[in-house]
Amino acid sequence: FTAQLSNASGVFAASPVSLGLVTPGALNTVVIPAGTPAGTGYKIRVVSSNPEVTSAGSANFRVKSCGNNRESAPEAGLRVVVSPNPSPEGRLRISVSGAEGQGLRVELFNGTGQTVREQKLSKAGEEEVLDWDITRQPGGLYLLRVSDGREAKTLKVLH
Of the ranges 38-42, 67-71, 117-121, which is most confident? Predict the structure, then answer.
């Protein structure tokens, strides 16, 4: 499997930039090549060669210019990814980072504001991955709120 980088507009050109090999199901690290122009529309995708399958592009992310070959620090703050979204099967994978060492509270609210699922962690690790089954909930729009005592993020989830 190979990770590829789009251009700054999120388009994977005929010859996208290869970021190296990645392992399926593992936490992988890729390095954005030096000299990549700053921008906010970049995406990463994964391509396999046998069978030939290409993932959808990631959410947009920002590349900051880093002169003199210094690495920039990752953007601080709470980061939350929910997949798949929409989730017609009712199974959610919630990945939370940026809350290391903090208490973490994850809540799912239905359309009337009722809490339908909640999970608390007393001390979050570098990345927390929660697998939730919401198959017993009716289809519709839900709000997922993740808070670490310093910051909160709310995302729309479609079931």
Answer: 117-121
